[in-house]
Amino acid sequence: MRTPRLLGGRYEVGDLIGRGGMAEVHRAYDTRLGRDVAVKILRSDHARDASFLHRFRREAQSVAGLNHPSIVAVYDSGEDSMTEPGGGRVDIPYIVMEYVRGRTLREVLNESGSLDVEDACVVVESVLDALAYSHERGIVHRDIKPGNVMIAEDGAVKVMDFGIARAVADAQATMTQTQAVVGTAQYISPEQAEGQTVDHRSDVYSAGCLLFELLTGRTPFVGEPISLTYQHVRKPPPVPSTLASELPTDMDAVVAHSLEKDRTRRYPDAETFRADLERVRTHRPISAPARASLAALIGAPAVAAATGATAAPTEVLGGAAPTEQLVGPPNPATQPVRRAPVEEWSTSTYPAAKDRRRGGALAWVLVGLALLGALLLGLFAYSQWQENREYRAMLPVPNVVGTDIDIAKKRLDKDFTVTAREVDSQKPKGQVISQDPASKGEEGILQRNGLVTLTYSGGPGSTQVPDLEGMTIGEAKKALEDAGLRLGDRKAVDTADQPQGRVVSTDPGALTNQQKGTEVDVTYSSGKVRLPDLTGKTADEARTIIDDLGLPYPKVTERTTDEAEAGTVIAQNPAPGAIRNDQVVAIIIAKAPDKTVTSPPPSETPTPTPSEPTDTGTPSEPTDTGTPKDKGKGNGKDPKTPTDGPTSTEPPLPTDPSPTAGPAPAAVAVRPDGWRLSATWSS
Predict the structure, then answer these.
(1) Which of 457, 479, 494 corresponds to the end of one domain?
(2) Using one digit for the tens of pLDDT, what is the confidence trace for 549-558?
(3) Entry pTM
(4) Which domain holds residue 679?
């Protein structure tokens, strides 16, 4: 058995679970703490750059400090020494992260194609929440895409790959030496595509591309990498509702604003983006800048007027003056030269002296205004300094995790600004689950009036039992876990409603509302049905019973017998009991014996029997006396009058000649009264 690779003397490297252009991710086991982790190991070709290694170490330290429920936690980082084929040694950096059981958003999209509006909003809101947190701490992700977003088994959204993308971008100013854009072409911002220095607004653009794909099933732009780069820089994105007609207009506006080419015109930060997205989900009015972006995108001023958007430039929508006014007069070297018409240069309306006097007066006015502005600015700065001096002191932040939210707020409100967010949890309702910043030991350190974010439990919450009918037990378990429920008792039943191992019903029933964490009992098919005894049933009754059991149409045969009533079942195969729910039942139906019709032998006494002719060769002729003569076969008695039966005045028929006594009669006649008349001729 091969000894597993050991990193840092504690991490046993296992199976490869992901591979990218810059690193590989392995499942690993922390031998010291006894837990599964994920280890991301940088490729050796990126590790040869000393400046990159320096930046990676610095970045890893920063990322390790991120502590947010929507960010995959980073536990540790280090370097592993590797010997190259030529004998040289190179240090390979690695980062140890939280191991998340679940699927990437890419896998979800590959299966479903797209998400509905509410689900897409929930996912992207969580991503933006994570980005806002990281941006506050100076960390820019630079590679937001479905493959870097995990959907955990409990439904939590986790953003991955913080740190490495930033280190790569810093090493080469977004572009590598071969001029390949760092990042994924479908999601890079225009400033990334152009090789400019990026900031947090680049993540806002990438999140907009992610939202577009979740809603429509495709990215805003498609094509080869070079074509994609051009489209991100120059081509306006399509309106999402042109690809998914059910999308509301406000969603079109939010996407359009996030995908503005000019970063100064897009959402200024992730939190503003998230707030607008939440407004769409909760059916509240979105911001005016978002509506203005949509109006500009579709080129319809009427739409902007209908939605209440103004025609003011984006730079002043937030109430701030244009950038040039904030940083000082524009640089003449960067401004276009504006030439006056020829008439202005060839003629003069006013004397030169008058122009000089007016110019001098204007200069003094401008100087006075400048002095006044400087004075006001100084007074404002002094007042801010005085105010800040009182609140600049660093204060300990109490650890309130585990306490009631109301008590925690009262404890923190005196010295800090407190925000709270409620989440579904198995913890007692109202209990603080986490705080940011997290305490260091018993207490953390924060500036007075600094922001403390508390996450507290809203209780398990309610959820709907999914319809599990027809699923396997494994599929049912996953569906329940995705809904925040647990699989309870499992019971097999004999039924033809479902194949073997498939769910037949649940308790509580499908589509009922239950508290999260509730156990759902599952009844599944054993693959068998209970066949009753069919003997004695009519053929129609047996067929009805078999059909009601869901079994295939039976095989019916007949057997002649007089031991059972015709048309009833006299035998079946298989015998009564549990059988497969797809088995064909054979039944045998009783058939009555055939009734053979035979003629009874003629009676000897009911009617006179004519005598048989003697063996003389000459048949007797009938006489006219009315008394028949019989010289043939008889019983030894005189056949003048029959011993039995009525007497007759008709003469009897002559007897037939014996087989050996001459020729056969030429003609035979039968009288209506049953007597036979025959005539013979001799040759």
Answers:
(1) 457
(2) 888 989 999 9
(3) 0.45
(4) 649-683
